């Protein structure tokens, strides 16, 4: 079957039937109702799956062999309610409780960033407060947006309030741009988050940064949340709230690969917006990043280690 | 000032300050949270205004001279809440109550079609149940969509339930495509609506149809709601739920021009989605249709009548 | 599940498992190696399936109820060899032999038009020479293109040579444009084909034409092959060899609906090229046309007949 | 050589060397400095030539055989000065004097519509005032635009003032939209022009209209000027000042084919704007229309006449 | 009001009424008649304003608080004459004289680069010859282009000739690509300009460069002119004369932020071409750069300094 | 003549007539039948030529003066057979034998990467096994793809088998992404190739790498093959098999410029796919890279050397 044929599951994986026998579940959350600017992330899960056709099984850089090591399946999409943020967050939370209770690790294709809150709520039930590696242009720690508590700009504020995070083990990378107050990022810092502004990433490898992250986080269950707008718009043009001056693709790869060794219990790529991704290369990038997230699963073997 | 310069109000109209002294108010409703498929209509009001730069003051076909006759101003956008359908519908209703209570006629740039319900609610308070000329691919009379009552597929069902329409004076034009039941359009008919399926419009002028509409409606206060997807996707590609086999642009012009003589108390153009309108020609079309709606205002003079 | 979520099968149909219990099989043929101008049709099956999300089960115009009447499933794609026309045609032929031998009716999502030859070869084995309703800008009856026998411009010449067609029951609709000789269409006519040039379709309903087709064809097993470039580029911009002056979408619907009553044994929509379909509306149109082909299956019930 | 290979001359014609031995000269005028809204027509000649690759030598509808009958060559582009309207108009006029003085018929690929004035000035020197078939959304008879005399909205006013036209033999087809005064088209009519507004073309064949044109014009030397925005934006989206409600592609073909029999001394297709023609189908349409203009050259043989 | 609603002024600033009470004036110059390749910059001011909706008031990197410190307003566009370079340059000069004479600092949204000449002419009247920080792929110091003196490739040659620049305090950053002579940049150097070719910027921070600039320039009144094509096409694809191998976005930010401390009397962002900016991210980038130019205004307070 | 006018040859070079008197021949190979994912490279030669209009004669960075030094001409395209890989490879080989036998250096505009095999076969006849500088995301050393030997993923495996390469003088730069086995690149290394994975290029200048290449290769005849997907998709979005994490444009320039001094006997830029290059900037980049390849021809003079 040529690359562009056959069912458009993630990397043409089989459709998942039970989380019980699955190590990593690919899950789409086609939800963008909590978006503040350009919508479209609802269309991302299908588009990322389609573009994942270009992926081959082995990771040449890390020599990871995910499909030789663990069970991976595509479970399709969470049946969210596009008309209600509140109902959708509840649906997502219940869905992910099932995943985590089966010791399955979700790699999520968003959707806007509001979806991370119910995922973290579900994770807490299984793991307690988790460590977080958060790549983003924005801290997403607003108290509210336009008067609302549950939006794509507020999930990590809610997560702290609901005790979902081990705050001393949270790292936010790539923050930048303009803010609602000159001290927007101070709130994150006051919670104990390690905030790495984009300006501190320019023109350098992030391998040292990630060495520090691994040291600080240790074996604590860790969630990775990657908002595609953490990358520079040159690398990820197809997104809803682009901010110039962001990370390069190679830095994003360094971050995910640098999480190898952590006790990763879930990960997501969010905020890809296909209507603004005319070449479809942002979806293709997201597919690659999701694949890299699979490759760092603790039970994946790597030729590099043999 | 060249066409492409200066403030991007509708046709470079002055910014409206009071509905009291205004005959026709251009109003944007940048809301698309009630959309079921491709989002993006939230971006339409700004885009339609930008493309309206190509419009000159006089209507060559009808010889209408709107700006010589009445006061027209652009009042900007209704400050909807993008995260809540319920709150937004309330905000819209209150906003339009102000308009109608000042005997001002709104020409609305949507936004998705859910916004017509609060407009009709506001209209009822001033006019009682109104006649309706509704151009659309879809009847928008579903009882609910995905379990929700207030979406872009349900406004006219709600409008009937809330006694907002003079059902015997409702005309739906352009309906077509696939449905949730083979008798979807029967509900409309059972309410007394005059349903004109797209198939009955193919290859013909709609002037006779509109003659009939004017006769049937008489002097009853009339609202015009034009979903851009009533037109064929060849004419209006930039929309969220396109249906092949629709009206031509000339038929849409015949419908609006055919409303001249009715007691039009408001009108809208909805469901333009700029992310799917790469040439911006759908926004430009919508600008033209909104202009034609202005031109049929009862107090607009026409050289044709002089 | 929202429209844009869930597995991207045609209309979210179940994945087919056996042709034996299936009345209509949706099959993709992601092949464009036989294209002469702009490539890209290889990407169409996935894109048409994705855009088919907008389709609901019932046909409002014909009141057909396909899913209440017959078994329909999506069998995914034929595993063609993108590097070899010859091998692919053989693979396709063998695949379709299986379909036809199970009395299953294929509705095919192309792919370029070369794929119709192996389908017709397979059909002949089951049905003998078939009647044909062929919608296209081009006769596709060249003897060769650039020296080659098997291309997207030659399938019907080959089909006649191989006695696959009941030539007196072949109708070609929409032919137009420029040719390699001023008598290009004469070959078709000399075989007994009924050739309806696009110029003879302008500004008129094709219902009378199709009444004639049904009369002429009678009960002979009939195949429908619809090259999307039979439609005007305004209606179907996303294709590889567009020709101005073609059929309207409503005429295409009249043709397919006008085949109701024929003994249709298979149908296809070919030559959609997603890279040239930036709004994705051509894929959406193709999805609708494929749906209409399902609706005219002889065993589909219609409320209109009840 | 495949269609998409080889030198990108019009229809891969040889490069013209002398107007003397050439019946029809294809000439590009890559000029858009006189545009009032969206620029880009400067890029059209190269793009139309590229897309002309799809054209084959014979006209299937009219059975014209241009390349068997006359000498046709592509002379490339006029070396206009993109920074000066005044200088460019002079350059164009001198260039076309050469063409006309050699009894060669130019088929011009614009460029914006300002370029027709110097062409008509050159034509007058050879032929005296000429008859005109002018397809356009706009009369292009403004006295000035933004204070300037020489723009793409004024050429035919200047042409009348300079006695370039046989006014009783001028036909303007497709005019519509909005104007600077309700009587904009009255000026044309007061000069004796035959003005056919777009509204009078809707839903009908233009064959009768063109019969009348031929009768009225007789043997007077005739120029054809086709602004692509005369067509509806659904048919010709890639243009700078689109106006909804225009001619269909089939009507444009009827107009040009209906000029067969006239003493055509030159023709142009103007106002294609490639940056707004993302599918390139408007350029392809323009290539087809230019080809049809070649086919009606008085000395072209047609199989239909044999 | 959601981000995408309300009037499309820069950052939804109030419309400026008097330069007298304004510290920084946002001004658009929708002019592209002096462009040599792809046009479209005329459409940039409106597009940059629209995309500026994503900007929030505070600068997270520099902690600047512009709106808490100074009066900023959007004065709309200069009413240029799109048909005449000469007249437009005069109109622009007169317009900017008004600005400078009121001690107001203009931040200009171009338009092509020709517009910097009249701005510098106006500046000279108030400040004498100014220092210049010029970011660009091209030196824009040609003696003429295609025989013309006033184009987008010549403004700084004219500026030197007219004694508008303090040549020893001019820095040109990002120059690269191909030239009309192998010593094109030598002219700049011979005037005393500090020329930093793009090759000298690759893979490094420009903070040291800017330290040097500030030292060299001191307190001399300084103008910043940023041609968006100074950035690499990966960062700024939507422009008319892209040159591969340019600055990164982070380097552009370093340059503007590195001007903090200079006596900046005006700044511009030019050469954004919306028709080539399909994602609109180049306009969004330009909006961010214009915002950064506001933030370095000498009277803007910064939390970093408190 | 403005940049956008005149014949669309590479840099408006004259059309080549004889390889004998030509130092460097620009040749297009419009072939993409051997592509595995997104097609479209067949359209690249025309598009690269069109966009080469922006190039001026002198190289500002290297001060090379190619047109003052050697004879360069555009020979148009190789007349490949789009329907047959096998026949096309033979046609290409024969065509290039002519070039090499005339001591002419081809700079080729692809086309997909399969075309390098027949070029290398032709080169071997003249030069014996050659050194290779190969920029690519992929090693293109698969044994077969989907069962086929001659595809765009296999040319260098075939080249080794056919003894076309001096394996110890082969450098592959930019390899990355996912593979069919974790040891995909080991085959290259086992042949003696110098493999430089993309990860080893991140955040650094490649000048030292190229110093090593020149040292290792010495005076051996060298071919340069640059697959545009060697660059990061941010720099070269318009290609068929993009891989995130690639080279920057400045690194690509360092590689080509770093080949100055080698005995370069031919070079190519392949895999540009115009349908995925909506801004046309990838074609423009390819034009620049081809120009740089011309500039390093051994007989080109440079002001830097004078």
Task: Jot down its keywords.
alpha/beta, about 300 residues, homohexamer
Brief overview:
Six copies of one chain form a homohexamer. Chain A has 306 residues and is an alpha/beta fold.
Task: Describe the overall structure.
Six copies of one chain form a homohexamer. With 306 residues, chain A is α/β, with parallel strands linked by helices. Chain A has nine helices and ten strands. In chain A, helix 3 packs parallel to helix 4 (116-127) and helix 4 packs parallel to helix 5 (155-161). The mean pLDDT of chain A is 97. Strand 7 (178-179) of chain B pairs antiparallel with strand 2 (58-59) of chain C.
**Secondary structure: number of strands of chain A:** 10
Mean pLDDT of chain A: 97
Q: Which regions of chain A are unreliable across 5 or more consecutive residues at pLDDT < 50?
A: none
Strand order within the widest beta sheet of chain A:
3-1-4-10-9-5-6-8
Write the layout of secondary structure elements.
The structure is a homohexamer of 306-residue chains.
Chain A: E1 24-29, H1 44-51, E2 58-59, H2 66-69, E3 72-77, H3 85-101, E4 105-110, H4 116-127, E5 130-135, H5 155-161, E6 165-175, E7 178-179, H6 184-190, E8 194-197, H7 207-217, E9 221-227, H8 249-258, E10 263-270, H9 281-295
Parallel strand pairs in A: 1-3, 1-4, 4-10, 5-6, 5-9, 6-8, 9-10
Helix pairs in contact in A: 1-9, 3-4, 4-5, 7-8, 8-9
